[in-house]
């Protein structure tokens, strides 16, 4: 069992330019080195993108990681579907990233396709950090491409 150190600093100080927090995905080279996230907000943005792009049950050894967004693709687009998608995102974010405050979730069908044959969802999530409401960002995910 893990021992929780209650005296440890649980917040990263973004003032140190030499401190890297995580990796950007997809892995790309930045001046010959693997591109890394340099601020807490950048790292959390990458984590939100990863969570939204991971289907529930896709991760080996962590079957509860992810959101089943693809299951909504072939349902008739309605307010109920939009609410269900929002609830799924809120539930997953509350479980995996309780330090993130969701400010807005927007769901729409893709404008790139016409009529009833649209089969792509566009999901946007605006969020902020609970410790710093001024640190805000947003991510956009396209489901069904």
Rough outline: globular
Second CATH tier, the architecture? Roll
Distance between the first and last residues' Cα: 41 Å
Estimated share of beta-strand residues: 25-35%
Rg from alpha-carbon coordinates: 17 Å
Question: What string, H for helix and E for strand, traces the elements in order?
Answer: EEEEHHEEE
Identify low-pLDDT runs.
none
Helix content: 10-25%
What is the residue-mean pLDDT, rounded to a whole number?
79
User: What's the tally of helices?
Assistant: 2
Number of domains: 1
Provide an overview of this structure.
The chain has 145 residues and is of the alpha+beta class. It is 22% helix and 27% strand. It has helices spanning 40-53, 79-96; strands at residues 22-23, 29-30, 33-34, 36-37, 100-109, 121-129, 132-143. The radius of gyration is 17 Å and the shape is globular.
Summarize the structure.
The protein has helices spanning 40-53, 79-96; strands spanning 22-23, 29-30, 33-34, 36-37, 100-109, 121-129, 132-143.
What are the salient characteristics of this protein?
Nuclear Transport Factor 2, Chain: A; about 140 residues; alpha+beta; globular
Give the secondary structure arrangement, pairings included.
Blueprint: E1 22-23, E2 29-30, E3 33-34, E4 36-37, H1 40-53, H2 79-96, E5 100-109, E6 121-129, E7 132-143
Antiparallel strand pairs: 1-4, 2-3, 5-6, 6-7
